[in-house]
Amino acid sequence: MRRALVAGNWKMNGSTDFISELMAELVAGIQTSDVDVLVCPPAVYLSQVKSLSSSLISVGAQNVSENSEGAFTGEISLSMLNDLGCNYVILGHSERRSLYAESDAVVADKFIATVTAGLMPILCVGETLEEREEGKTLEVVGRQLKAVIDVAGIEAFASAVIAYEPIWAIGTGKTATPDQAQDVHAAIRAMIAEHDAKTASAIRILYGGSVNASNAAELFANDDVDGGLVGGASLKANDFIAICHAAGA
């Protein structure tokens, strides 16, 4: 039985006061170990969040450099994340791919570096609305997965999480129906199974795309949906706590 994971991607939001209040509410409201809970704040607040967190709430980063150190102004290395006690790193988020031109190859390099450093990557894959309407969802997702598998090897996925994020549902209020989510999640698991059935059975596949307190339970009820990568709702303590409870139900 795969253990559910709910990850909050705070994106470029927050302040010291806001985070102090949010973390106090999350720590008080998340008292069950039935589900893994993760928050991913902006990098400048990682230390603060780590200091305010509890043993039931892990802390992760929204991005990382594939380079170990050197003259890379503005970048953050995996050794720095390890130093701060981070557990996870979100990789290949659609915003990184589209706004900052991160290619499949760059995402693959970051994936390898993250696994090698002992952190767990959350590999994001997903299609645009145009690609879905053209029936290319599985082609796009398959390409994004293959780019990583070909370089990292399927063995690396034993220490990874996948997040299916239909780009057309991120921050738009639109959400894939439970059936749409299940279909793609099942297809992703089948793609992994083509390389290794054991890894496919064990890997957690999260759904991301306007997950909220109202739709979480129905999405998480699907056999191949193992939790969520939550955006806006992760900035609202009551909503995020409700989503966590839905995943652990």
Automatic annotation (TrEMBL):
Pfam families documented for this protein: TIM (PF00121)
Recorded catalytic activity of this chain's protein: D-glyceraldehyde 3-phosphate = dihydroxyacetone phosphate
Xref: InterPro entries: Aldolase_TIM (IPR013785), TIM_sf (IPR035990), TrioseP_Isoase_bac/euk (IPR022896), Triosephosphate_isomerase (IPR000652), Triosephosphate_isomerase_AS (IPR020861)
Keywords, in A-Z order: Cytoplasm, Gluconeogenesis, Glycolysis, Isomerase
Annotated signal sequence range: none
Gene Ontology MF term list: triose-phosphate isomerase activity
UniProt-listed PROSITE patterns: TIM_1, TIM_2
PANTHER family xrefs: TRIOSEPHOSPHATE ISOMERASE
Function: Involved in the gluconeogenesis. Catalyzes stereospecifically the conversion of dihydroxyacetone phosphate (DHAP) to D-glyceraldehyde-3-phosphate (G3P).
Oligomeric form and interacting partners: Homodimer.
Protein name as catalogued: Triosephosphate isomerase
Organism encoding this protein: Neptuniibacter pectenicola
Lineage, uppermost ranks: Bacteria, Pseudomonadati, Pseudomonadota, Gammaproteobacteria, Oceanospirillales
